[in-house]
Amino acid sequence: MAFPDGDYPEAEGRALADAVREALARRRISRQTLADEAKISISTLEKVLSGRRPFTLATVIRLEEALGVRLRDGLGRTQPDKPAIVGLAADELGAYARAAVSWIEGSYLTLRPSFGMQGAVYAYLTQITWDERSSCLAFREAERLDAAFTQVGFVSIPHQSGHIYLVTNRHGQHRLAILGRPTIEGAMYGILTTLQAGRGSQLTPVAVPLALVPLARLTGSPAFGRVAADAPCHEAYRRHVARVTEDMFAVFPER
After folding, report:
1. What pLDDT is recorded for position 85?
2. HTH cro/C1-type domain spans which residues (predicted)?
């Protein structure tokens, strides 16, 4: 249900965004067409779908009327099982206590190789915070050049492996980041497994090195987007990505 001020909680907002995307795909209409039919601005629609603005009850009702579906019926279905103790994550996420994982909360410059430009580094923002409603750590991406592919999900920290997992599950479609424990500088290095968009509707599985660097450790304002080889920060970004394999945080066996 919505908060008293009319805004939906973060986890329910993600479920609503997924429902809107599915309805768009089924009806085969553009976001602009939906915005026009729902009598909301395209800017508002883009922001609620990317998580940069919370859904309000009024916006949801307008979208439901325009799409001819009830978006609220599936709320809560993609959330992890609610734990029995407040402040303790569900067993499926590692059963960690909030106090034991507070060190990971924060904003991170996120770096991986660019899929579209040889030698470039793709940079965006990942924010990790405690989700009170689901009683676990959650992550949200921002500052992505390809905003339509912005990811949100939950954080799993099982004791057995000693690794950190950023998990996205949208209607059964998963994206997974596996990260080692933070270094002395607070950075986390590992691997991202996702789908690379190709021609038309083609999607290809891909795995790449991934680095999360705490914004608080950086000097100056970070650059986001596709960072080419001639950019001032490219060498520093490239070194972080290269460290994944050089320091054996992840291994990519030779073919």
Report:
1. 63
2. 20-75
- Tokens read off for 128: 């990790």
Q: What span, in angstroms and rounded, lies between the C-alpha atoms of 121 and 99? A: 34
pTM (predicted TM-score): 0.68
Nearest to 229 by CA among 69, 113, 127, 151: 113
Domain 10-74 fold is 434 Repressor (Amino-terminal Domain) (1.10.260)
**How many other β-carbons are positioned within 10 Å of the β-carbon of residue 216?**
9
Check residues 253 and 213 and name the one with the higher pLDDT. 213
Which listed CATH number (3.40.50.970, 2.70.98.90, 2.40.128.120, 2.70.70.10) goes with 91-246? 2.40.128.120
pLDDT tens sequence across 51-64: 888 888 888 888 98
